[in-house]
Amino acid sequence: MSQVQRPTQLFRNLSSKIAALPMIFTALVVFVGGTLWTVFYSFTNSKLLPREKFVGFDQYERLWSTSRWVISIENLMLYGVFSLIFSLVIGFCLAALLDQKIRFEDTFRTILLYPFALSFIVTGLVWQWLLNPQFGVQAIVRGWGWESFTFDPLYNPDIVMFGLLIAGLWQGTGFIMCLMLAGLRGIDEDIWKAARVDGIPMWKTYLFIIIPMMRPVFITTLVIIASGIVKLYDLVVAQTSGGPGNASEVPAKYVYDYMFQAQNLGQGFAASTMMLLTVLIVLIPWAYLEFGGKKHG
Length: 297
What we know:
Layout lengths: L1 H9 L3 H28 L16 H7 L2 H32 L6 H9 L6 H11 L6 H7 L16 H26 L3 H9 L4 H12 L1 H16 L3 H6 L11 H11 L3 H32 L1
Family: Belongs to the binding-protein-dependent transport system permease family.
Subcellular location: Cell membrane
Protein name: ABC-type sugar transport system, permease component
């Protein structure tokens, strides 16, 4: 009987499985194949074109001895930590405010979400102008009479990453707000009524009841934010081009510069592999706790 059922289950929803074949083939060839190809040639001395002249871990030793790469990793960690924290906090607070059934909710939601429709290049150019000390925020405030006011983060190597962070938050926070708002709208109204009857303050209801119930939404949001942080590139190019000096260098820009400008494919492949390894170090424990832990439990 089981032998008869297995072929039946195999051919169940056959049209859907056939329709999924191109995507499966693309994932295997393009993503998995491209990843293995990149890792393979990261151990070679490839320059303008790939060549199979193996040098072992020399590319990785050269990579981690380069101050530009170390600075890019530090910048990405700084940007990533603050981006995760502020995106979640601001996005959730905005969603909680809109969830109060305020007037003109659709208008406010559209205004807050609109920046997400812009490309990072447009956002970077706009904020490059706004943060320019000659005709941006600093010039406007000084025109009001505060001559000593200084606000030029893109020209200060110590705080340039915070200038990038402002632009990134302006563009992405609205989208995070919509994700959080969708999660809040999925909470049963009876929970709110029970909390009011028991006299639980609103902030405690959010902190100890609502947020734990929104765990899947937070996990999805974290994955989306983390993916945007790892591939941070166009915002940096549009605002600072990695400057002043190398103060706003990021790994994605390092990879691009070495592969297409410095014509050093081996070094670019090594940097790409390290970015992949960083993602796997975070992804594998999360996947095990999220899926493997449940099975064992």
